[in-house]
Amino acid sequence: MADDLDQRVLAQAIDDIVASYALHGNINHLDGANLPSRALVSGLLDDLLSIVFPGYFVEDEVDALTCRYFVGERCVRVLRRLEVVAGRAFTSSGAEAAANEARARQLALDVVREIPRLREILDTDVQAALGGDPAAASASEIIMSYPGIEAIAVHRIAHALHGWGVPLIPRMMTEIVHRQTGIDIHPGATIGHSFFIDHGTGVVVGETTVIGDRVKIYQGVTLGALSVSGRTGRSRLKRHPTIEDDVTIYAGATILGGDTVIGAGSIVGGNVWLTHSVPPGTTVMLDKPSLRFIAPGG
Amino acid sequence: MADDLDQRVLAQAIDDIVASYALHGNINHLDGANLPSRALVSGLLDDLLSIVFPGYFVEDEVDALTCRYFVGERCVRVLRRLEVVAGRAFTSSGAEAAANEARARQLALDVVREIPRLREILDTDVQAALGGDPAAASASEIIMSYPGIEAIAVHRIAHALHGWGVPLIPRMMTEIVHRQTGIDIHPGATIGHSFFIDHGTGVVVGETTVIGDRVKIYQGVTLGALSVSGRTGRSRLKRHPTIEDDVTIYAGATILGGDTVIGAGSIVGGNVWLTHSVPPGTTVMLDKPSLRFIAPGG
Amino acid sequence: MADDLDQRVLAQAIDDIVASYALHGNINHLDGANLPSRALVSGLLDDLLSIVFPGYFVEDEVDALTCRYFVGERCVRVLRRLEVVAGRAFTSSGAEAAANEARARQLALDVVREIPRLREILDTDVQAALGGDPAAASASEIIMSYPGIEAIAVHRIAHALHGWGVPLIPRMMTEIVHRQTGIDIHPGATIGHSFFIDHGTGVVVGETTVIGDRVKIYQGVTLGALSVSGRTGRSRLKRHPTIEDDVTIYAGATILGGDTVIGAGSIVGGNVWLTHSVPPGTTVMLDKPSLRFIAPGG
Amino acid sequence: MADDLDQRVLAQAIDDIVASYALHGNINHLDGANLPSRALVSGLLDDLLSIVFPGYFVEDEVDALTCRYFVGERCVRVLRRLEVVAGRAFTSSGAEAAANEARARQLALDVVREIPRLREILDTDVQAALGGDPAAASASEIIMSYPGIEAIAVHRIAHALHGWGVPLIPRMMTEIVHRQTGIDIHPGATIGHSFFIDHGTGVVVGETTVIGDRVKIYQGVTLGALSVSGRTGRSRLKRHPTIEDDVTIYAGATILGGDTVIGAGSIVGGNVWLTHSVPPGTTVMLDKPSLRFIAPGG
Amino acid sequence: MADDLDQRVLAQAIDDIVASYALHGNINHLDGANLPSRALVSGLLDDLLSIVFPGYFVEDEVDALTCRYFVGERCVRVLRRLEVVAGRAFTSSGAEAAANEARARQLALDVVREIPRLREILDTDVQAALGGDPAAASASEIIMSYPGIEAIAVHRIAHALHGWGVPLIPRMMTEIVHRQTGIDIHPGATIGHSFFIDHGTGVVVGETTVIGDRVKIYQGVTLGALSVSGRTGRSRLKRHPTIEDDVTIYAGATILGGDTVIGAGSIVGGNVWLTHSVPPGTTVMLDKPSLRFIAPGG
Amino acid sequence: MADDLDQRVLAQAIDDIVASYALHGNINHLDGANLPSRALVSGLLDDLLSIVFPGYFVEDEVDALTCRYFVGERCVRVLRRLEVVAGRAFTSSGAEAAANEARARQLALDVVREIPRLREILDTDVQAALGGDPAAASASEIIMSYPGIEAIAVHRIAHALHGWGVPLIPRMMTEIVHRQTGIDIHPGATIGHSFFIDHGTGVVVGETTVIGDRVKIYQGVTLGALSVSGRTGRSRLKRHPTIEDDVTIYAGATILGGDTVIGAGSIVGGNVWLTHSVPPGTTVMLDKPSLRFIAPGG
């Protein structure tokens, strides 16, 4: 008896769930065409990183004899995966299916051709980390245990895709590395060379941020927008700040607004909250720690 | 010789470890009954999310022909896994074994029946994200790359289990999503519809927090308890704040205390530290950025 | 035609990547000897944690009959893996290959012998969590769902390896748990017993930090260095603060500098920014929340 | 020097292999479209067998509450996989791509609809095994440990596909089970109900064989063709024997030729070699074991 | 339209399958209790073989330091798995559930205790292979590439379980190795020491066969029953032959019948068909190859 | 109590097993150096076959754009794996460790260079199958579903290794394919081009067999040695027959002896037993089926 009841209850529950797919259709994806899944995009990132930093993340001795073949095969994997995920992304964003295949293949080749340039700039990022952290012992240690390097590498890949107009994938890539590192950089942000993020948890860099060369930021830094009232279509205005060359921003500082420019060579102290520009060479600090001390007997 | 020595050293070390299991027994679990493992609870969450957002996280074309069967099978998997983990959780918390099986099965059916209601409220959460972030391009982008949506979805599941008195599992669920997203919401917290968390890293929402409808919070927000002196049993007093409808809380703000009520429609600025209530419609901001500027030549 | 073009484009791209390996050789690792990979180090940590907290993270009933054999086999796995990764780490840091094998085996035995002592101190950490959080229901809940416990356990392992002069591995271990928990403790930091981290996301503890017994810290706390100007070799000066026994540091507080000592029994309030010492028993708080309130009609 | 030499040798070897793909093109498949792989066809067979004999080969409690959903989901998996492999098979055999998709889907539905009929006839095969082997203890033992049952089940599936004109897949299916059991039945063979194969290793049943009801054969039996001289196109003549109802054929017997008919109720003894028909009810045996006995002192 | 039709067709097909589960219930297993699956039994065999021949089938350096722990852990795995599969087997064969748990644990301990005796006799089997095949180069080559050794090892394990009255499992074990090697030995057969099977494909050894010491057989040998007319309950009569010590049986020979005894030291030639006894020391050969030779011009 | 008893029983059993490792040391491999495992050799074979028949066994579209990179990477995998397994094999057979590394690398390069020649001869084997079996529909069907092709391909690889003096590995390779196909060809056998094995189960080809071009054999054929009396060291005499060009041997035929030569163009009928030579062009058949027919009423 109880079993019959359970069967009816379960059948009803399943009917209700299927009915809810009709009722709340915008949080389903039931048209039979796969979206680019997180697992697929994640595997693609792993392959790209293994080409960019060969020998670091693969359990396979790579040497002069073999590296050419390792690279060739990884590039082909990247090509194949990119064709798939980019094709799905174009389709899911409403692009006409006929042109998508050729577009996805062209894009895939472009990404592979971009890798030497990516390596050139990532080399400057690793140098910046080595120069900027007294605790860093070697380039190997930085590549293998600094979350900032991984976040920047993924950003630079995602930023290229974003620039080529690929939907969905760039945001999925940066969110994947956000989950790993706590560093959330929008693919739209423009970042110069020799960029260093230390520790990194809680860093947020908004879509229209512009960052110069040799900039250094610490955990908990937000480069964000001022509050938005109302939403009228998807805004592409510059809503996030500009950080000029050679700026250092310490932990927990918040810099907001599309017109805010931090002049070259400035230093922004920890926990500072800035919503307006400062000229080059400025040091900004919390005035005095406005604290109350209570002695043991107080 | 050396080998013999190594053998004796290793044998002694293993004896010492086994001895330490007797000595520090409260950090072992050696009674031969498995606890609900993180892997099992994590797989259960994956299954639940794949029913709640079908077509988004599964590498399997789901369409009108197949979705009923997809749902049916996933519900059965959820039933089976929940019976196992809930049974273990009841047992581990000392409940009488005899009643646990029936209780776990009833619970499992209840969870499946809850899914349509979960989808109804999660639809409002996705709408809130779409309306609240100018950078969001589509519902797909939000579901696949906004950590806040995942954290809220898991919270709503865990909160239901918590309400039904299930031990251990709800906290394991929220900790699993905390590890993924940096968003730490206690299953006990009560949260209204259309809830939006942007970026999210570092968000902490305490056990007895109450949050109204259409609330929006940013990364680094803490809704916490005032400091506790002494511990006298497990307190169930309201120790965390109440956030009324339509409140927005910007990044890094901290609101503490069980009697603290943020009135409906209020705005709490970034980095604000609040330990008392404010009436509806209040805007609270850091008074003036209390900063010191040092010019280059300064 | 198009295909021929694609073949030439791809072949050129691969040549360019291989050329870039010569050009930017410091971000390659192509000498044919594997580095200790993240996957290997991560598996090693999993094995160590399963010995330290038996029965909690393994899907395998462990009981009085079987625990001795479970421990024996895991210790052997730990030995074998440690020999591999430590051997690679010694080699990668330029140590003479001949001595590395014996050194790695001795080290591996030392780690296994250290486990009872690790368990002894971790028992105090679990007790501290149970005593310090009113929301904690049991030791099981703490071990299975408090990220702080995992971060501390890994730190204590990594700190021992760091003390024995093992390169690379300790930092990889702490970064692995940083990715999981958002808690970033340098292996060099010295930490007393009964240490409790609540929530934890965004915590940073620097290399030369010294922490006493029964210290409690919350999410977003930074124990860091004052800014460094210039880099002259790898500094081993004490650059991070000293926290004496029985100190509590609330969320978001920042304490900087190698000469900064927080005296025993002190309390540091949330968001406080401290760059100098305070005597034992001091309570430090933000003076008054320097806020501006705008009423609805304001 | 040696390394440079190795590099040149390896590069040359790879060039030679690629050149050999042009030279011996009929043993490559390099047109960029996947063939139905053995792994895919094997997974499809596993799914089909788990629907046909539910509860026997799956590590998942199936009961009255859940079996409907188990079946639904497996049928959908079968549909999806069959669409893929049949589509590839049609394409690889030169069929026009446009029609293949619809044809593959129709075929997939037909296979699912065939399952009840397959179960009906397989029930008779299991009964025949239970009745025919004194060592058989139960239907469970037969389904789980008699290779003949698996070979017959796969044959009956492959025979249906073969009848519907599907290229490649049926032969791949029977070869998969041949590798497992040593029983090689061509998908073209027609086999009645209550068929029993004992032990089975070395059994060969040719393409145009016709077998009646309640036939029993043992290991090493060949039902084959007489030798073929010359090959003029692919012959579809009846080249293999006809075995009427209720015939038993003992181990190692060989029966050859398309005109050979073994009359109903006949018994063919072990190792017998037959190339002509026998009337119903005949018993055929090796006349007398034509042996030479040499005594110890001989 | 077509899609609606497909949905109805699929729903009907699934209903028909579920209906067929009621109609042909003896080839389902839907009572919600798992049977001992082939995968589980296969894993158990792998574990047992890795204890019996340590260092041969495991990718893990085993040496004097570690072998004790390797063995301990494997024995525990064997214990746990055996408790599960034996428990399921007892239950599936109708035994009273209450006693099964204790019985399964006792059995599991007995199996582990049996291993030294198994190794003692398997050592003689390896010696027999080394002595009997001029192509064999070493004990390693025999253990790693002679299917006969694997078949005998599994038989000796299965025979012990069969002797202790375990249902289902022994037959599943021998069928697993039959699929691998083409050698089909019923667990009931009694086999002496120093047994050697060369090549082995097609060997069949029946349930009540008795084989003495130092017996050698080749591929395709059948030790079987004479034909059975009718089935009256499960026969336990001796239906298969007795092979005394020091007998050699060449490829393809067939020896049938429960009263047939091949006297000690006899040699049975290839393809011989024997249904009666021969005295000790007899050599039995096909009298003269009764062949017809046709010369080229014939 | 019972538990204590079980603990003692288990501990004793494990002690006994470890003691048996000392007692029967020739069936252990406990010197801490891994042997070439079956899994490793099997993976190596899979890689080799995927280069030899590209596009047939890999789930990865291979085309003109990508095949060069696919081949390059697979060759590198083959190199790396061969260096490992050949190195272990040399060591296990007592070769001096110092020279083994260079020897293994040279061997690995030789194998890769051999592939074009292997493909050339395997092309003739596929043609022979296509020409020899009226049931064969295409080269694809033959490569994907004829066990004979796989057995021959593996033999040709193993034979090359055997010729270069590699111990252990060649036998492991042919045993792996024996388990899959029931075809057991010793790596020492010499086989000409256009070799075709149909069905194949039970085929045995001995170590010193020599087979000419365009030979065709069926299931159950044995090319073996006459019985050996006594064993005096490892014999390398020619113990198995010579089959000249264009011979066909039907199912179940047995040809024995090192001096036996089957002249070119001969046909050996099914089940024939031959221990002496026949001149070219001979047809050998069983004289007359020496059968007894018993009519129904007989």
Any descriptors?
homohexamer; 298 residues; alpha/beta; serine acetyltransferase, domain 1; UDP N-Acetylglucosamine Acyltransferase, domain 1; five-stranded parallel sheet; 13% strand
Q: CATH class of the largest domain in chain A, please? A: Mainly Alpha
The best one-word shape of chain A is globular
Q: What strand line-up does the widest sheet of chain A have? A: 1-4-7-10-13
CATH architectural label of the largest domain in chain A: Orthogonal Bundle
- Low-pLDDT runs of chain A: none
Give an account of the 3D structure:
The structure is a homohexamer of 298-residue chains. Helices cover 46% and strands 13% of the residues of chain A. The first copy, chain A, has 298 residues and is of the alpha/beta class. Chain A folds into 2 domains: 31-183, serine acetyltransferase, domain 1 (Orthogonal Bundle); 202-288, Hexapeptide repeat proteins (UDP N-Acetylglucosamine Acyltransferase, domain 1, 3 Solenoid). In chain A, the strands form 3 sheets. A 5-stranded parallel beta sheet of chain A has the order 1-4-7-10-13. In chain A, helix 3 crosses helix 4 and helix 6 (147-163) packs antiparallel against helix 7 (169-181). The longest helix of chain A has 36 residues, at 97-132. Chain A is globular, with a radius of gyration of 24 Å. The model of chain A has no long low-confidence stretch (mean pLDDT 89). At the A-B interface, helix 1, helix 2, helix 7, strand 13 and strand 14 of A face helix 3, helix 4, helix 5 and strand 15 of B. Strand 15 (291-294) of chain D pairs antiparallel with strand 14 (283-286) of chain E.
